[in-house]
From TrEMBL:
GO terms for molecular function: dioxygenase activity; metal ion binding. Gene3D superfamilies: B-lactam Antibiotic, Isopenicillin N Synthase, Chain. The keyword Iron applies. This is Fe2OG dioxygenase domain-containing protein. Residues 215-325 form the Fe2OG dioxygenase domain. InterPro entries: DIOX_N (IPR026992), IPNS-like_FE2OG_OXY (IPR044861), IPNS-like_sf (IPR027443), Oxoglu/Fe-dep_dioxygenase_dom (IPR005123). Belongs to the iron/ascorbate-dependent oxidoreductase family. Transmembrane segments: none annotated. SUPFAM superfamilies: Clavaminate synthase-like. The keyword Nucleotide-binding does not apply. Keywords: Iron, Metal-binding, Oxidoreductase. It holds the Pfam family 2OG-FeII_Oxy.
């Protein structure tokens, strides 16, 4: 495909659509470009200068919440303290780290390793899974919105809609992730139910209220791979966005190659690097639908991922688990919960 620079793209002879089609037709993603040895970022990946990170970015540490205290049923005060921590963090930062969450550390480690194995498999092994058909529950591609977004992101993604439908047969999954993807999704679904209970209590509702509304009926795994970039200063691993979900549970690698996630502090504030997670932690953030049903009390925070430098020892990987309603079949209109008293009368729907 063309490696037309941004300057050339500004001229009259640049055919962006042709370059997009040429890139998509390779079915090899960004990893294919890197393997081909490109030294400049193609024009389709170049973001406007004002959207790119600056060198003056600060660093913020996301609050850490120990979930074990919330499970001590005999100690109501301990649970109340965890609820208070979740409430304060969801209302201000919108992100929090969970430790002692119950998801096995070995499973988390293997999930990250399996994502790396898949994306670093030979192109022909990934080819059968490359698709833009939204009806496919398992799909591999680069940039789900490639033909709609103004600039592509420097990443490839393996996506799985894990629920609410019965899970796909193990034989339908790529060999690299076959033994770990579905068990991990099930563990995170259970964790999401516990977090929703804490958020429900933080809103003054019964503990099961948000889960009963279907806030974690749909579970989708988005397994991202960010290859080293020859010009990380001109593109992004993922552009600025908030999550269109109720809740996101994010698994990030720690140690070498970690980092890259940035969050916007305050309403319309400055971007800050999110410090790598503490060992064994999972990062949770509020989504747009949770902000809606909480009537704005909980914040869905804008975030992005910077491109990985070519000097990095390895590509960056992450696994985002989006907790949502059954968007394919559920026609419920969600809206702000009127009050804890009214919400207990029945399922909360939109106005």
């Amino acid at each position: 495909m063309s490696t037309t620079t941004e300057a050339a793209a500004a001229g009259g002879g640049y055919d962006r659509l042709s370059d997009l089609k040429a890139f998509d037709d390779t079915k090899a993603g960004v990893k294919g470009l890197v393997d081909a040895g490109i030294t400049t970022v193609p024009a389709i990946f170049r973001h406007p200068h004002h959207q790119l990170p600056s060198s003056s970015t600060t660093t913020t540490t996301i609050p850490v919440i120990d979930l074990s205290a919330a499970d001590a049923a005999a100690d109501a005060d301990a649970r109340a303290e965890v609820v208070a921590q979740v409430k304060a963090t969801a209302e201000t930062v919108g992100f929090f780290q969970l430790v002692n969450h119950g998801v096995p550390v070995d499973l988390m480690s293997e999930m990250l390793s399996s994502v790396r194995r898949f994306h670093e498999s030979p192109a022909e092994a990934k080819l059968p899974y490359y698709t833009r058909d939204p009806r496919r529950r398992l799909r591999f591609n680069s940039n789900f919105d490639l033909f709609q977004s103004p600039a592509a992101n420097w990443r490839d993604t393996l996506f799985l809609a894990a629920s609410p439908d019965p899970p796909p047969a193990a034989s339908d999954l790529p060999a690299a992730v076959r033994g770990v993807m579905l068990p991990y999704a099930a563990e995170v679904r259970s964790l999401a139910a516990r977090v929703l209970a804490l958020l429900s209590e933080a809103l003054g509702l019964d503990a099961g209220r948000l889960e009963a509304m279907g806030c974690a009926e749909g579970i989708s795994l988005v397994c991202n791979y960010y290859p080293p970039c020859p010009e990380p200063e001109v593109t992004l691993g993922c552009g600025a966005h908030s999550d269109p979900s109720f809740l996101t549970v994010l698994l990030l690698q720690d140690g070498a190659g970690a980092g890259g996630l940035q969050a916007r502090l305050g309403h319309g504030g400055e971007w800050a690097d999110v410090a790598p997670p503490v060992a064994g932690a999972l990062l949770v953030n509020v989504g747009d639908l949770m902000q809606l049903v909480s009537n704005g009390r909980f914040r869905s925070v804008e975030h992005r991922v910077v491109a990985t430098s070519r000097s990095a020892a390895e590509a960056r990987v992450s696994v985002a688990c989006f907790c949502n309603a059954d968007v394919a079949r559920d026609t419920t209109r969600y809206g702000p919960i009127p009050s804890s008293r009214q919400a207990r009368r029945g399922r909360c729907t939109g106005a």
